From TrEMBL:
SMART domains: BLUF. It comes from Zeaxanthinibacter enoshimensis. SUPFAM superfamilies: Acylphosphatase/BLUF domain-like. Gene3D superfamilies: 3.30.70.100. Pfam families: BLUF (PF04940). One of its GO terms (molecular function) is FAD binding. It comes from the Bacteria. This is FAD-dependent sensor of blue light. Residues 2-93 form the BLUF domain.
């Protein structure tokens, strides 16, 4: 059984784009070794991440992520068994939505292109729905509005 965790967090203000890319390379290596897949979206100093794999491995990775000081205000959006992987071929897909690409139509098109690569099944459609709705909110709202909305929907 595959377990999935989806969370949002705020990047530390000093966390540079170069450091984000370095983190991603290490994450891909770790994830391949532990058979973890998923994706991470980065927009306006915010992360939205899905990690999926064996429950033990996902929980161990998530514990490490929560303790990582490169981001804060980690908010869990989904933490359940999901049947099958949403992104079975991605050790960790990454997409950074650029500030200058901030038009609604453009960012929606980019998000659609990412989500079209998902493998959706009866077992993982709830997790996919949380990921899709959270990604839409991430791109559509300002930083404080997003976190306030998520907290209202999912609690602290």
């Amino acid at each position: 059984m595959i377990h999935a965790v989806i969370y949002i967090s705020k990047a530390d203000p000093g966390f540079s784009k170069g450091e984000v890319k370095e983190m991603l390379l290490k994450a891909k290596s770790y994830n391949r070794t532990h058979e973890i897949t998923g994706c991470i979206l980065y927009h306006k100093q915010q992360f939205l991440q899905l990690i999926e794999g064996a429950e033990k491995d996902v929980r161990e990775l998530y514990r490490k992520l929560v303790e990582d000081n490169r981001h804060h205000e980690v908010t869990t959006l989904f933490d359940e068994s999901s049947g099958t992987r949403i992104f079975p071929n991605w050790a960790m897909a990454f997409y950074e939505f650029e500030e200058e690409e901030d038009s609604t139509a453009h960012t929606r098109l980019q998000l659609d292109q990412i989500l079209e690569q998902a493998t959706i099944s009866e077992g993982n459609k709830e997790a996919f729905g949380v990921l899709e709705r959270s990604a839409e909110r991430l791109l559509a709202q300002g930083q404080h509005e997003l976190f306030n909305t998520v907290r209202r929907l999912f609690g602290d």
